[in-house]
């Protein structure tokens, strides 16, 4: 008796919140948490004019570290529009700051994180340099 053919299960897609955490970890590992917070705050301020929903992203200092509050939809992997909001923030407002400050250093680092590449958060300039 033959078994029914099964399609491989599609990999679980990360939520915008999980991608934000990974982005934070990668950037903070290179430039530190204070610089990462400053870059994100600047990018969020600029992006909020185009994407008002980003005003719900709040970064705050807690002791020696940072914490954040993200929109509720960002915690749901099924909310692909939340990932698109994050993607536009990173592409349009954060990557230009990265390039200005570090050239391709941060973009190359992000390009080594498969989930960030898959989500379109790694920056295309890192791929151009390979």
Low-confidence region ranges: none
Helix and strand pattern: HHEEHHHH
What kind of sheet is the major sheet?
Answer: 2 strands, antiparallel
Structural class: mainly alpha
Mean pLDDT: 90
The oligomerization state is single chain
Helix content: 55-70%
Describe the structure.
Helices cover 56% and strands 8% of the residues. With 130 residues, the chain is mostly helical. It has one domain (16-128). It has a two-stranded antiparallel ribbon. The model has no long low-confidence stretch (mean pLDDT 90).
Task: Summarize this structure as a short list of keywords or feature phrases.
single chain; 130 residues; mainly alpha; 6 helices
Short synopsis of the structure:
The chain is mainly alpha-helical and 130 residues long. The chain has helices spanning 16-31, 33-50, 80-102, 105-110, 114-118, 124-128; strands at residues 58-62, 65-69.
Set down the secondary structure blueprint.
Blueprint: H1 16-31, H2 33-50, E1 58-62, E2 65-69, H3 80-102, H4 105-110, H5 114-118, H6 124-128
Antiparallel strand pairs: 1-2
């Amino acid at each position: 008796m033959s078994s029914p053919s099964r399609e491989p299960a599609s990999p679980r897609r990360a939520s915008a919140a999980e991608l934000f955490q990974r982005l934070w970890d990668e950037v903070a590992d290179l430039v530190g948490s204070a610089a990462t917070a400053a870059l994100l705050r600047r990018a969020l301020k600029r992006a909020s004019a185009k994407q008002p929903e980003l005003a719900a992203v709040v970064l705050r200092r807690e002791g020696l570290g940072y914490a954040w509050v993200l929109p509720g939809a960002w915690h749901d992997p099924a909310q692909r529009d939340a990932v698109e909001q994050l993607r536009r923030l990173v592409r349009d407002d954060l990557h230009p700051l990265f390039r200005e400050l570090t050239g391709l250093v941060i973009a190359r680092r992000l390009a080594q994180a498969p989930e960030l590449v898959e989500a379109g958060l790694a920056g295309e300039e890192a791929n151009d340099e390979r």
